[in-house]
Specification:
By secondary structure, the chain is of the alpha/beta class. The protein is built from two helices and nine strands.
Length: about 110
Amino acid sequence: MTITLTENAAQRVKSFLSTRGRGVGLRLGVRTSGCSGMAYVLEVCDEIAADDVVFEQHDVKVITDPKSLLYLDGTEVDFTREGLNEGFKFNNPNVKDSCGCGESFSV
């Protein structure tokens, strides 16, 4: 089981952690939400729990809980800029359907 970060995503996370001045990495999870059932949750992780699963690419840790990993296995996290919009993009091979606005997905 794995979650990967592109170099662009890793650079963005490093920049944010540096500006913030603390944090051990990026916490990625899922929660029930939206019209398709699940939504991604991204936040700075200040502490790694005993049952967390940790992946590291480009000197950045991605931390997730075991329950979320079931839905995130194989996901690649990228950071993209399109015109005036920028943000993290999730390439998740487990997604079977997503809502029109792109805020939620189902597996």
